[in-house]
Amino acid sequence: MFNNRVKISQLLTWEPAQQEVTVMGWVRTFRNNQFIALNDGSTNTNLQVVVELGKFDESLLKRITTSAALKIHGVVIPSLGKGQKLEVKATSIEILGDSDSEKYPLQPKKHSLEFLREIAHLRFRTNTFASVFRIRHSLAFAVHKFFHERGFLYLHTPIITASDAEGAGEMFRVTTLPFDNPPRNEDGSINFKEDFFGRSTNLTVSGQLEGELGATALGEIYTFGPTFRAENSNTTRHLAEFWMIEPEMAFSDLEDNMNLAEAFIKYIIRYAMEHNKEDIEFLAARLAEEEKQLPADKRSDMGLVEKLEFVVNNDFERITYTEAIDILLQSTPYKKKKFQYEVKWGVDMQSEHERYLVEKHFKKPVIVTNYPKEFKAFYMRLNDDNKTVAAMDILAPGIGEIVGGSQREERLSVLEARMKEMNIPAEELWWYLDTRRFGTVPHAGFGLGFERMVQFVTGMGNIRDVIAFPRAPKTAEF
Ligand code: 4AD
Ligand code: MG
Question: Are 388 and 358 in contact (CB under 8 A)?
């Protein structure tokens, strides 16, 4: 039986009083044939297990190597050593799994994140990744808690779809056709009628369109699932497979949407700050150490903990796209020609512009609204100026865009006209348009990139370090 074990995180809260206990975990270090630092993944604080000299066979002690798995039975006693209240004096030691330390690629020293990405199957065994994944779990749990408390239903939207929700054409195809000799139509094009679904299908880029169908009957829904984008972006902010949370609310406008997004972000950060204090502090220290290597002007003004506190305790800035462009046109980097990309009303902002707004000008998260319709999706509600749409992007310090959302175009004729303008095939989206035909209502929603959120809370610079097994261009090893 294994479930009589006590988790180390729990055990460390006990008052030592000669209690008998069984612990299991992996060896981090074994010093002087006497002190085992044992870790079971529940906390970064290792349990010190004391092995009395002469009590165990030499042959057993030899097998206590870094990463060997042990089952230890012992007695909880006060620790004489510094830095820990208690330790376990071993009465029995069972080796559950040996580990050849010569071949084990992780040594008890600091490894680079790049190296750890190459051994992503083992990187959970480092303190950094253990902290990241405990925080990731808490954030995911908090997502469900937040929406559940507000009466949103968790809707599971499909992963395989026949539509391109974002109209951006960055999709992975799903097919069972033989790619060396696919069935063809008379004109030479591929005959998808013979494909598995009898049509061309792909992995979803967003659950929004289906989410709108749910919201316009159930009231308020959210999705939380994997999302796929075949954009060839090799950046620290892009994945080909990422997780997105997409709430959708009937009877709501852009302002309701901003309020929801801001409350949501603050709630899940607060939840992690309360439940993962130790892990956030560990990562904060790690980040502070890393930043010492940077030139002074590249360092952040605030530590990780301060930054999170600041974000949950202050209102996000809310500005329109037009105001954002005005600020950029007045800015020093613009005047000194330091921006690489053009700043002009009607041109999409690049990350250098977003960073300036968030990190230099406002120094806090910024919600930018009412973008020109030209570079936003077809479903966003057209404003009365006929030039802008009721879009909102939330930009976060160090991350850039973390949320994209909008009030939706609920007027059938306006929506149809927009689709025509943008070459979105209305016949394929007949089911989506039906929501506008039968009792249409103002509604709004947004998408939060979960990994970008995890980056924000953990301070990890590369998105590949906050998802267990990253999928990115030329990257799908594990
Ligand atoms: O702005 P996006 O493309 O919005 C949508 O997909 C809408 N359908 C959402 C909605 O209104 N329901 O994506 C939303 C968010 C972005 O703000 C970003 O945080 C994240 O998803 N995201 C990515 N994260 C990691 N890797 C990528 N390639 C991402 N693309 C978008
Ligand atoms: Mg976007």
Answer: no
Position 145 pLDDT exceeds 70:
yes
CA of 169 to the centre of ligand 1 (A): 14
d(CA 446, CA 345): 24
Q: Given this model, what pLDDT does residue 109 score? A: 82
Express each pLDDT in 211-257 by its tens digit.
999 999 999 999 999 999 998 889 999 999 999 999 999 999 999 99
Instruction: Tell me the two tokens of residue 246.
Output: 């997409």
Residue 403 in contact with ligand 1 by CB distance below 6 A:
yes
Q: Is the distance from the beta carbon of residue 23 to the nearest atom of ligand 1 less than 6 Å?
A: no
Per-residue model confidence (pLDDT) at position 1: 67
What are the backbone dihedrals phi and psi of residue 432, each rounded to the nearest 5 degrees, phi first? -70, -45
Q: How far is the CA of 256 from the centre of ligand 2 (A)?
A: 19
CA of 345 to the centre of ligand 2 (A): 18
- pLDDT, tens digit (0-9, with 9 covering 90-100), for 413-431: 999 999 999 999 999 999 9
User: In sequence order, which ranges of 292-411 are alpha helices (DSSP H)?
Assistant: 304-313, 321-330, 332-335, 351-355
Q: Which ligand is nearest to the CA of 447?
A: 1
